Amino acid sequence: MGRLIGGIGCSHSPALAGMFDSGKQDAPDWKPVFDGFAAAKAWLAALRPDVVVVAYNDHLNHFFFDFYPTFALGVAEQFPLADEGRATRAFDPLPGHSAFGWHLAKSLVQDEFDPTICQELAVDHGVLAPLPMLLDHPWRVPIVPLAVNVIQHPLPTARRCFRLGQAIGRAVESYPGKLDVAVLGTGGLSHQLHGPDFGAVNPAWDQAFLDLLEADPEALAALSHDEYMRRGGAEAVEMIIWLIMRGALGPTARRAHRIYGTPAVTGLAVLALEAGAPRERVGHPS
Ligand code: FE
User: How far away, in angstroms, is 176 Cα from ligand 1 center?
Assistant: First the structure.
């Protein structure tokens, strides 16, 4: 049977990718953040995941306003890099895990979640900004991408994302083969990318969010989109994606690594969590 082994919440700022690709990880403002990614990468490698579910949001690079699924699950054997209107980064297409992807699709639908099931899906910086800092390239570990609509209202609630994560935890446990699964949730933290408050970050809220994500994620699940946006900026509503990762890990998940910094126009964080015991997961049917 499958086993949930851990999760990572992290930012997916394109600035991260830019600094990484230009070899500037040691720039003073950025080094603590990249050190956090390096620690999380070593931790994840030691867990030896067979597959990583990556909950993220597409930024109008695969989906567009005329067709925007609330949740979209990639079940392909390979995921190309999306065209984001600038030079494509020098990474191979991402390997998928079709068998687990389809199992996840069936299990979620049985569990009354109904993702759009994608046999073709190009992934953008929501996946690719952090992934090279967390997995080796050339890619050895396959992914199952899960795109979440945090772009076009109505958005799924924070609680819906948390419950979806719990359903992913149940799906992992019902997988018929031996499979160790890690879950990533990417986005945020606080950022506002338009208007007079462009570049505003709220470190106090970001740290409070990280505290609550560890200790009381139900409190975060109870917040409205307006509260996320008022506290962290309009684009900070991406933070609800982290609740998918957190929901999968169960109430007794424990911190392995945590780092936070504000080197550019967003709050940047990496939070790695060990999964709780399966029987302790909220909502487990047994
Ligand atoms: Fe984003």
Answer: 34
